[in-house]
Design brief:
The complex is a heterodimer of chains A (428) and B (104). By secondary structure, chain A is of the alpha/beta class. Helices cover 31% and strands 26% of the residues of chain A. Chain A folds into 2 domains: 6-66 and 107-139 and 285-359, 3-Layer(bba) Sandwich (FAD/NAD(P)-binding domain), CATH 3.50.50.60; 142-282, 3-Layer(bba) Sandwich (FAD/NAD(P)-binding domain). In chain A, strands 5-2-1-9-20 form a 5-stranded parallel beta sheet, with helices on one face. Chain A starts with 5 loop residues before the first helix and ends with a helix. With 104 residues, chain B is mostly helical. Classes of the chains: A alpha/beta (428), B mainly alpha (104). The complex binds flavin-adenine dinucleotide (FAD). The site of flavin-adenine dinucleotide has 38 residues of chain A, from helix 4, helix 5, helix 8, helix 12 and strand 22.
Amino acid sequence: MRNLNRRDFIKLVGVSSASSMLALPIRASATAAYRVVIIGGGFGGATCANYLKHFDPAIDVTLVEPKKEFVTCPFSNTVLAGLHDMEFITHNYDRLRDHNKIHVVNDTVIDIDATKKIVILNNGNKLSYDRLVISPGIGFRWGLIKGYDDEASHIMPHAWRAGEQTILLRKQLQAMDDGGVVIIAPPPEPFRAPPAPYERASLIAYYLKKAKPKSKVLIVDSNKTFAKQSLFEAGWKKLYPGMIEWVSGSDVGRIERVDAGSMQLFSSSGQEFKGAVVNLIPPQQANTIAVNTALTDQDGWCPVNQKTFESLKQKDIHVIGDASIVGDMPKTGHAANTQAKICAANIVSDIRGVAIPEMVYSTSIYSLLSKKYAISRASVYRLKDNKIKAVSVKDSPNKASKKTRLQESKYALGWYKSITADAFAKEE
Amino acid sequence: MIKMMKELFTIVGFVALLFSSSATAQGIDRGALLATMCVTCHGPGGQGSKRIPSIDNHSDHELAEYMHGFKEGTERATIMDRHASSYSDEEINLLAKYFYEAKQ
Ligand SMILES: Cc1cc2nc3c(=O)[nH]c(=O)nc-3n(C[C@H](O)[C@H](O)[C@H](O)COP(=O)(O)OP(=O)(O)OC[C@H]3O[C@@H](n4cnc5c(N)ncnc54)[C@H](O)[C@@H]3O)c2cc1C
């Protein structure tokens, strides 16, 4: 006993140094081997994987995603404009796997057994989970517009999931004769990225103004108003006078039928529209896996507990991103990012049996009208009576200097760099 | 012996303290959680992203002052005024403290 000093004592209790005692992961022992499987490596899923690891490195996180590389919808309109190439909007999962120690499984989930708590992959493999997070994005309601199916989408691209469709639309714009009409037809709300059709109209006009100045953009809308409308309309007047025309949903009703052969759209109000290029954005719902596993409601979206994002249909399954119904939050990548973090914090807190602190959710949605002109919507949300409510939704001022619009276009780029670094763990 | 016992108690006490404090430390700190919203635009750790300013290089006092200024409209902003106005003073101070301490 005489020689027992501090060092010996530490040996006795099985810890070799005071500093490693500090690092002794008590919390890890409570969560070790706790398995979270995430379906979908987009804005919601990839971010959630990172933040689970951030809050608790001991959690075993598996991300299932069929694509080896993810092409973002954000900034895909700049590719249509010729401002960026596809590479700029393409991201891989290398750092998630190698640096953040997330198991990345390159496959599609075809079924979920919520009783046995396993997901079934296309290759037949099964993954068991303690908690499942799904962020599968959107699917299309093909049946709602007569004549518009997967095949027709190769003639009238939607380009609402970025990748091949983006390239196709860009090629069509390049091949179009000067003087052609480009139709953009947004679906009725709710749909992915409410301001994005109008950003697209702007950036297509940006390209046309340079390359084919006699051409026009016609927005055939199924909605009566749209996000940041007065800002967009003022910008169009200034940047592309006479080039962009918007036909309101109060005139159009909605698109009922298309004829891909004659490039025509037929509306419920009896009007016909014909374009040289037609970008038809079909009505949407949660992606197939959510629909097939009964996580959706009658409208095709997933109801969740808005505090935890746990499905109201299945225990231990959380749904985030575009697929979920999250109070006042529109379906945006920034919203998916926000939900992913809070979902991760909830899962970690729940495992440890502690409460999660009161949260404030913030999103900034930028829209580019040209290379040097952008506008934004800053929204702040809080949880009230278990619903996510907007406490403020504030747009860029209607009157602003050229410098302010330029500043916002630079911020838009900074936002893109930063949110993709957050999701795909990229070093900036 | 007495010295040794004293040392032992100190260590036992230290271990006990560690365990009890990490029991509460298991909860996610509110400042850290709120800060997850900032880094979406301001880059990993708040280091800045392209023209979006860094927020990891101010004293806590300074960062809070900026945010209060944005909130009150006394500090010129492009977008931060629109965010800051919906944060409470307490939340602003928590965020400033978090980014300051994370950098130390
Ligand atoms: C033109 C355009 C511009 C946009 N601009 C912006 C913007 O500026 N700012 C903004 O915040 N948002 C923007 N958005 C919206 C943004 O793209 C979406 O809100 C965001 O991608 C939603 O994230 P998510 O995780 O729900 O879905 P996604 O990001 O689409 O990710 C879903 C992933 O799940 C995978 N998946 C699906 N099913 C399965 C399965 N069964 N098994 C495994 N994996 C599966 C898919 O392959 C996909 O990778 C824009 C959208 C468009 C169309």
